[in-house]
Structure formats: structure tokens, C-alpha cells
Amino acid sequence: MPNYIRPQITGPQIFFTVALAQRGSDLLVTKIDDLRLAVRVTLNNRPFRIDAMVVLPDHLHAVWTLPPHDRDFMTRWGSIKALFSMGQGAGAQRSSHIRRREKAIWQRRYWEHHIRDEGDFNAHLRYCWGNPVKHGLVKRPVEWPFSSLHRDIRRGLVGPEWQGTSPDGKFGE
After folding, report:
1. Residue 151 confidence (pLDDT)
2. Mind listing the pLDDT tens digit for each residue in 106-161?
3. What is the DSSP pairing of strand 49-55 with strand 59-65?
4. Sign of the Cα pseudo-torsion (60, 63, 65, 71, in order)
5. Considering the entire predicted model, what is its pTM?
6. Are 15 and 113 a contacting pair, CB within 8 Å?
């Protein structure tokens, strides 16, 4: 097994991709209220800022900023996954899931990328916003209901190009 070495930066900005074990499932959008509650409870217990988030049927992308002097995103994701899983039935469990008392809903691992600079941050925000278009779920990012894009439009943080179709259709990818 690889030995992952994570940056030892406190207060980092990090991009994540977190997926369900069963790709092709629509559990995250059909149980969106359960996911929102899991995130809200985790935010209350271990604060952090959600800079961007998009929830697709079988995976999600997020950009977080952790508080100064804190780098523990693993506990936060563990909490979100556990709280969400409590209200769900078990997936297809293998013996390793049973041993670890896992419901086999989530993939064990997730993709993380520590943001390097403002350009990298902006590229990952755009990636989150444009991902539903990339997956063919909608024609325009603003049509996808499970995206922080709507929050950022209300706050006046998003240019008008995100409320329509990008001329090149790439949305910052």
C-alpha cells in the first residue's frame, strides 16, 4: 500500500473529490437533505469554510478552507461520511466492510489537492461549478440545484458567464 505524505500546512485550502462505493448510484441527490444535515453537524462541531461544493448523483467535489492552526480535514470527512451513512441502508458489503463496521456506502479514500495559489483556487471553484455540465446532467451550471454556485450568485461573487453557457463549454477545466 502506498505511503501517503500529506502537506503539514495549517489553515489550508483543499479541493476534494469524494465518491460513493457504488458508482452510478443517485444516493447523494436523492438523500441530499441527509447529506446537508451531516455537513451542517460537522461544521458546527469542527468549523471550516466551504468555498465551493457541488453534489452529483454518485460523487461530490468541494473546496474547503480550514481554520488557522488546523489541518485535520480527515476527521471532518469521516464525520460527514459517518453521519450520512447512519440514515442509509448498507451497500454491497465485503468481509472487510463487516470487520470495520462499514456500510459500504462510500469509497474509503478520496482525492485531495492542496490549493497552491489564487489561480489554482479559482480553477477549482470553476471545476466545481462546471462539473454537472461535464457529466451531461445539465446544459448550464446554473441549472444544477446542488451547487454552491447559487449561493455565490446571490452573494454577487460570480460573473454573468456562469449564469449562461460558456462560449467554449469548458468552464475552467
Report:
1. 94
2. 998 889 999 999 999 999 999 999 999 999 999 999 999 999 999 999 998 888 77
3. antiparallel
4. positive
5. 0.83
6. yes
